[in-house]
Amino acid sequence: MRALAITQWRGARPLPAPQRNIHKASEHLEGLLEEFGITPGQDEESINAAWRFAAGEFVSKQTSVISFKKGVLVVHTLQPTMKFNLESMKSMILKKLKQQLGAKVVRSVVFRIG
């Protein structure tokens, strides 16, 4: 009876439960990370370790990983000659990175001077 009186007073039916469209962020987080090409457990340290393995100890000391987005690893070096050498070894480095991180995770490597 009370619900009927309130409905008539408001002039509309009561709203459905407002909680029905509220979701926790954790429910959608995995899907979003997958959409952006980020797999669980992929952190900065594992990417740096894979770079050290792929490039070797000497080269990894002369370079630094800037970013890793959508399967593209961006590596920074100060020396143009180092960039030239890295470009010539790019296919071998990419193969080792795919071996370490997974074939679907790494698509390419970009080298920058600066």
List the helices and strands and how they pair.
Layout: H1 2-10, H2 26-35, H3 44-55, H4 57-62, E1 63-69, E2 72-77, H5 80-88, H6 90-101, E3 108-113
Parallel strand pairs: 2-3
Antiparallel strand pairs: 1-2
Helix pairs in contact: 3-6
Number of strands: 3
Shape: rod-shaped
Oligomer: single chain
The number of helical runs is 6
Q: What name is given to the CATH topology of the largest domain? A: GMP Synthetase, Chain A, domain 3
- Whole-number radius of gyration? 25 Å
Main β-sheet: number of strands, strand sense, barrel status?
Answer: 3 strands, mixed
Q: What is the H/E order?
A: HHHHEEHHE
Q: Which range does the strand content fall in? A: 15-25%
Whole-number tally of structural domains = 2
Termini separation: 75 Å
Question: Main sheet: which strands, in order across?
Answer: 1-2-3
Low-pLDDT windows of residues: none
CATH architecture of the largest domain: 2-Layer Sandwich
Helix content: 40-55%
